[in-house]
Every structure is written in C-alpha cells, then in structure tokens.
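Hey, resending since the last one bounced:
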Amino acid sequence: MLRAAFLGSPYVGVFARATNDCVVVRPDVSEELTDELADELGVPAVPTNVGGSSTVGSLVAGNANGLLASSRIRQRERDRIEDAADVTVGELPGRVNAAGNVVVANDEGAYVHSELSREAVQAVEDTLDVPVTRGRLAGVNTVGTAAVATNDGVLCHPKSTDEELDAIEDALGVPADIGTVNYGAPLVGSGLVANDEGYVVGEDTTGPELGRIDDALGFID
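The structure tokens again:
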C-alpha cells in the first residue's frame, strides 16, 4: 500500500489508472513518485495526458485485455501507451466518454453507466473482451468514480444499495463491499488506484479506511 498525493491532491484516482499491465499517470508527477507507483503496483508506469488532459484516471479504464480511453485521445498518446505497456487501446465513443468515470472492470466483466449507448457498450465489450452490465451505485451513474475493482473484489460507494452491490458482484464475479477514502470521501474511485498486486490511495485516507480497502480488494488472506 502507498499513500500519496499528486501535486498536492489526495484524489489520486483522478490522475492515474492501473491494470495488471500498466499504470497510466499524469505526466507532471515527479519521477520519484512515478517510480513508487510502478513499484507498488508491480507494473510499468506510463506518464501521459489523454486528449491533452492530465485527468487520465477519469479518462481511462481497463483490464488484462486492453485499455479503453476517451475518444478524445490523441494518436501520439495512444502510441505512447501501447509502446510502453504492450496493450491495445480502444476508444469509448459518444457524448459520455470519460471511460474511467463510467466503467468499472476486471478480467471477468464490466459494470458501466446505466445510460451508456449501445455503440459504447459494444466498444467496452470489444476492447476489454468481457460481458458488460449497465447499472448505478448509490444512484450515481458515474460508476467508475463510485467503485474500484480488482480480480479479487470491488470497493463501492458507502451508500450503494444491496441490489446495486448484488448487480456489480454478478457483473464482475467478485465480492463487493462498501467503504470510503480520504477521511470519508464516498467516491472511492477518485482516491484509490488498484490492481491485483497492490494499491495507491490518497494521503488523507485513515487506518480504518485502509482496513476496509484491504478487505474488500482481497489483500487480506
């Protein structure tokens, strides 16, 4: 586990996104912290913008089969990611295309914004090669801000209903639990970056919150 802030912000999930193949991180994070991210998550770090924006955690989602990026991604950004991490990068089409905000995925499935278009759902299926389920968490459509998933578990917004937790469990094939980050922030996806090897969380996250993260994401045997 690594507690961190990116340029003073504990909302690390806005600025980075991890899979078991790479961690994409905003390019102006210090080299030392970027190396620490890579070490904690056990994957190469890829410093880059997406569509010229540094909020790369909000704009990218992925699993072992590929990365899904906002359709605003530029060719040189795509090339940088594909060359550094040896992954395929697809695009999320349509108006709702901040992939990191609207897609939660692992290697078994994807849970997405309840109003995602058929074309966008197809893009998720094609890029991540998993079944896709539309839904919400705590009534929130931006499920990528409201949950973080690994292949062992998923941590969700503390006001997620039992029905929503059942739905995301069915979609991703892992147990779901609730929690917070950064001393009570409910949008856990904004303050947590995780893969199967480890996780990076906002520096304001408390000990009890860390315990819930460890338990929900399967880091406690």
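DSSP finds nine helices and 15 strands in the chain.

Sorry for the duplicate.
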